[in-house]
Amino acid sequence: MSLKIRAVAFDAVGTLIEPVPSVADAYRQAALSVGLDLPTAVIRERFVKVFTADDTTEEHSTNELNEVQRWRKIVEACLPELDQARSNQVFDELWEHFAKPSNWRLFPDVADTFHWLAQKGIKVCIASNFDARLRQVWSGLFGEEKPLDYLVISSEVGFRKPGEGFYQAVLNHLEEPAESVLFIGDDWINDVEFPAKFGFKANLLDRRSRSNKNNSFVSLQELNDSNWFVD
Question: CA angle 176-178-115, nearest 5°?
């Protein structure tokens, strides 16, 4: 069987899974636990601003310790009203919160899409800038035998998206050339622009229909109607 695409690399958060409650709501509840009451909208605005900032090196190298430190800085930037002791307490609470599968959910089209791709013999991996907590989250949500074999995680491979080293790790994992791999995610830079630069086919998953990009779609079910997987 000769396929146009032999493997698919999916981003995780916003593509396959989403936090429940939302990030801003979780931060608000954690802040309330130490006596700080802030509007969710304020926290959300701060989070968006600091989360999109990238303070890694030009190669975007990282490791698990760097990711812990990065998230500690994010919490401090979102909740600057806290003193160090309370900030540390909130960070610890949030770190554990987002490690629990119960605080995440799969989008409803994910399981069927993975099953459909498996039936067609398409290789799959999850290519994420999450840290090692994703293993616990994914295992708890998906519940498939050997689900952790899917995961390519930035803190484990040593590079964050959009570093070239990350995309090379994806190709090494899938054992396919870039032109045979479709990269799908909700971030235009990390999941479309840079994968395409390195030879992948790439499409934006725009679940909330906020983009006017030509190569975007709103549901993974649209993969069934594509011609990427024609024999």
Answer: 60
What is the domain-level CATH number for residue 209? 3.40.50.1000
Mean pLDDT of 19-39: 98
Dump pLDDT digits (tens) for 110-139: 999 999 999 999 999 999 999 999 999 999
User: At 118, which helix (H) or strand (E)?
Assistant: helix 110-119
What is the DSSP secondary structure assignment for residue 120, as one 8-state letter?
A: T
Classify residue 1: in a domain, yes or no: no
| Reported pTM | 0.93
Let me know whether 61 and 149 are in one domain: no
Contacts 24+ apart (CB under 8 A), 48-54: 49/77, 50/74, 50/77, 50/78, 54/160
What is the domain range of residue 181? 7-16+107-225
Q: Which of 194, 172, 184 lies closest to 220 in space, CA to CA?
A: 184
Per-residue pLDDT tens over the stretch 182-206: 999 999 999 999 999 999 999 999 9
Residue bearing tokens 């608000």: 28
Q: Would you tell me how many other CB atoms lie within 10 Å of the CB of residue 130? A: 20
